[in-house]
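Notebook, bench 3.
Goal today: get a predicted structure for GNAT family N-acetyltransferase from Stutzerimonas tarimensis so we can plan the truncation constructs. The sequence was checked against the plasmid map this morning, with no discrepancies at the termini. Length recorded as 141 residues. Pasting the sequence as submitted so the record is complete.
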Amino acid sequence: MSEIEVRIADWHDDNADLRRIREQVFIVEQAVPPDLEWDAEDTDAVHFLAFEGDYAIGTARLLPDAHIGRVAVLRDWRGMHVGVALMNAVVAEAERRHMTEQYLTAQVHATRFYERLGFRVVSEEFLEAGIPHVEMTRTSR
């Protein structure tokens, strides 16, 4: 595997890659209904793409209110620190924008991943799109 690179993406120019990854992970693998996956917030979000070479393998988004979401890595690249690279880029951009507290809604199975990145659970478990989630926050130092 070559080195993973993460860059800020453009919702319009990079739309095919952003949609391909999110459709595969959320709609196909996790059976999230398409009308829940796609929302009006995508146009105002800062999007991120992770690449191996020139192939996009992961994505995430940062909303203007410091909410991080739609973190997705294609199955064949999971466990290879792509998610860490994505989240480090998102948190760095949030901090650059003076968003000192970031938050996200995490699937329960992923809470340990986010805890290693400095997030902490701040809610009880709840269902979103039929999947158990919790709210998590992180405060910049």
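The chain has one domain: 4-139. The first strand starts at residue 4 and ends at 9.
Flagging this for group meeting.
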